[in-house]
Design brief:
4-stranded antiparallel sheet, alpha+beta, 5-stranded antiparallel sheet, 16 helices
Length: 455
Amino acid sequence: MHGRVKLKTSAEQQEAKDIERAKKLVLYKAGQGKAFDKRKKGEFDEDALELTAKLLLANPEVYTLWNFRKEIILDFKKEKNAIELQTVMLNELAFTENCLRTNPKSYGSWHHRVWVLEIMPNPDWQRELRLCTKYLELDERNFHCWGYRRYVVEKANVSAENELQFTDSKIETNFSNYSSWFYRSKLLPFIYPDTEGLRPICEEKLLKELELVQHAEFTDPNDQSAWFYHRWLLGRSEKKLTLTYLEVQRPNKIILVFNKQLLLSMVASVTEIGINGNKADVQWMLPLGRDNTSHIILGFFVEDCCLEITADVEIVVNVTFENTLSTLSLNLKKDSSESCSENKERTKEFCMELSVAATSVLEHEVESCIQLHELEPDCKWPLLTCILLTRSLSFTKYFDRIEQYFEKLISIDPLRKEYYNDLRSKFVIENCLENLAAHSVELTLADRQDRKSVV
C-alpha cells in the first residue's frame, strides 16, 4: 500500500467541490458588493470597468453589472474623441466575446453587444456577420445568435436572397435545424410574396418548398422542425384589416365589426362614413368591458347627421388600411325600419384557393404522408399533416377521411386528445361560417350531423 496515491471517494470529491464552490461564492459576493458600492458612489472609472469584467466573466447573467458597465462607458464617452471611443468599443466587443465563450447563450452578453454597436463610431458589420457564421458553425441551434444575425443583416444591408442561401446551406447540413426553417419563413414572403394575399408565399415557390420539406420529413419523421415549417406553408398570409359587418339604427347609431381587433384611436383615421353622398361625423366608442381594442366598434352620428325616418338613407362605409380598401353599404328606407344591416361575403375566409397544379401536389403530399404513417405508425406528425393537407383541399369533401385521421391521431397521442378535439371543432365551425348565407347573423351547430366535433 505504501507509495500509492489514495483515491478520494465520490463523497469526498463532492465535499471538496462544495468547499471550493463556497470559497468562490464568498469572493464573488464580496466583489459584487464592491461593484454596487462603486456604482452608488458614481465611481465610473477604469477600476470599476475591470471589476465588472471579472464578475461578468464568472457569471454573465447579472444585468445590473451590464448596466453599470454601460454607465461607465457613457461616462468615458464624454471625454474621449472618436478614435479613443472606437478603441474602447472594440475592447468592449472583445470582452463580450470572452463572456460568450463562458456562455454562448447569455442574454446579457448578446444584448450588450448590440448596445455597443449602436453607439460605436465605426462598427464593422461584415466582421459581425462572420462572427455569427462562426458561432452557428459551433452551435447551429443557438437562437440567440440567430436573432443577433437578423439584427446584423439589417444593419449590413445584406439581401434577403443571400440570407435565404445561407438557410439553404444550414438545412442541407442538418434538416433538424428549427432556427433555419423559422428564418426561412421570415425571408420567403419578402422574396416571393403572394400578390393575392392568400398564401404565405406565391404558389410556384410554395410548391418547391413543399417538395423540400417532404425530403426532410422522410429523413427524420420524428423531428418536429420540418413539420412545423410544413404547417406554416399550408397556412394563410396574415389577413389585412377588413370591415365584415355594418349595422345602423335610427336615430343615430352605427355598429361596425372588423375581422381583426382595432385600436379605438385608429378608427377615425381609417374609416370614412357617407350619408347620401355627404361625409358624416361620428363619435366612436368601444363596447362595455373593452379598454383599448375590439373587433366591434360602436358609433353615434352627431346631431346634423341623424338618420331621419321621413327619408331614405344610403350609408356607405369605407375602411382604408395599409393601401387596402374595404367597403360596405346599405339603404335604410323611410317609414319602414328602425335598423338595417349588411354582411361581407364569407367565402374562402379560412382556407386557400388552389390551382389545379397546387391541388395535384397537395393530393400527392397526402399520399406521401399516408405512406410515411404506414412506415412509422407511432409517429403523430404524418397524420396531423394529413389533416391539415386535406383541410386545405376541401373540408366538406374529405370530412369522413379527416374524422378517421383524428381518431387515429388521438389513439397515437392521447396526451393531446383535447387539443385535437379543439382543432376538429375549429375546422367544423370555420366550415359552417364559410357556408353561412351572406345575410345570416346566427350560427347553429346543434342539429349538425357532425356535431360530435364541436362538443
